[in-house]
Write a structure and sequence with these properties.
The complex is a heterodimer of chains A (77) and B (205). Chain A is mainly α. Chain A has helices at 3-8, 10-14, 20-31, 34-51, 60-75. Chain B has two domains: 3-89, RNA polymerase sigma factor, region 2, helix turn helix motif (Rna Polymerase Sigma Factor, Chain: A, Orthogonal Bundle), CATH 1.10.1740; 104-204, Orthogonal Bundle (Arc Repressor Mutant, subunit A). Helices cover 67% and strands 0% of the residues of chain B. Chain B has helices at 3-14, 18-40, 43-60, 70-89, 96-100, 134-137, 140-151, 155-166, 171-178, 182-204. The radius of gyration of chain B is 19 Å and the shape is globular. The chains are: A mainly alpha (77), B mainly alpha (205).
Chain lengths: 77, 205
């Protein structure tokens, strides 16, 4: 496997979707390749940073409206 | 989150516990809004879609059988509401053509060929971010770059990466929610993460 092939397999690797043979060849390549090691770490970091987007605050007006909807749902059951 | 937690959350909602509903809003409203934007492309319409999804969730709460998690159920409602709204809007909005032209399932390379030599090995490989201060890697400006990178993705990649990496679903849940094969889910995820990584590389280098 060369780097150009390895980078395209990285998500399958992270997801555990590679065959045992491909996984072994992938890991053998990574062990000797700084560029691919960095690339894999960066894909994982990208994922970690994206996780932070979930923490965005809900606009106060939106939350207020939804809580009012909840109260009215509660009162009509 | 364990099943016991999910069940107790559902029970709290059914019992009318407002704090439980508020916690749900705080966790999922942001990712739901981002996902809705993928389908309708207009903030006002996306806000409507999310609101309608929450109301549908409330109306269905007493009938919800808990065969999926509350979270999966909620996002499933959102995807349905948003897709049906997109179909209605598609007659008038050029936005729909973004979906028709989206070839995210292709296997085109995700890394510029010019970065490899003729032997397929890196000629201009990425530099490790180990020496970039963590305060920068995880800082607000970086998050802003990631947000723009996601917004720029074709819609089929955007829906997958929002569900996976922002909303935190696993691969099987996302292929079920979107009705796509696990292999397609991985192809779209890979293309999307590769694009976001590239944006980060450009910013952090």
């Amino acid at each position: 496997m060369n780097c150009r092939q390895v980078v395209e397999l990285m998500t399958d690797y992270i997801e555990g979707a590679l065959s045992a043979a491909d996984r072994a060849r992938f890991e053998e390549h990574i062990a000797g390749c700084d560029g691919c090691t960095a690339y894999l770490a960066q894909l994982r970091m990208a994922r970690k940073i994206m996780g932070k987007l979930a923490d965005e605050p809900v606009p106060a007006g939106v939350e207020k409206e939804l809580l009012e909807a909840f109260r009215s749902w509660r009162s009509t059951r | 989150m364990g099943e016991a937690n999910v069940d107790s959350e559902l029970e709290a909602l059914r019992a009318g516990d407002e704090a439980a509903f508020q916690s749900l809003i705080q966790r999922y409203h942001g990712p739901m809004f981002r996902l809705a934007m993928t389908y309708v492309g207009d903030r006002g319409v996306a806000e409507d879609v999310v609101q309608e999804s929450w109301l549908t969730c409330l109306r269905g709460l007493d009938r919800f059988e808990g065969r999926s998690s509350l979270k999966t159920w909620l996002f499933g409602i959102l995807v349905n509401v948003a897709r049906s709204r997109r179909r209605k809007e598609s007659r008038i909005l050029p936005f729909a053509s973004l979906w028709r032209r989206d070839d995210s399932d292709s296997h085109r390379p995700t890394v510029d060929r010019s970065r490899f030599g003729s032997d397929g090995m890196w000629s201009a490989g990425p530099h490790s971010w180990d020496n970039v201060p963590e305060s920068k890697v995880l800082g607000d400006e970086t998050i802003q770059h990631v947000r723009s990178a996601i917004d720029a993705l074709p819609p089929k990649q955007r829906e997958v990466i929002l569900l996976r990496d922002v909303a935190g679903f696993d691969g099987a849940e996302v292929s079920a929610l979107l009705g796509i094969s696990p292999a397609n889910e991985r192809v779209r995820l890979h293309r999307a993460r590769a694009a976001v990584r590239q944006q980060l590389e450009d910013y952090l280098k």
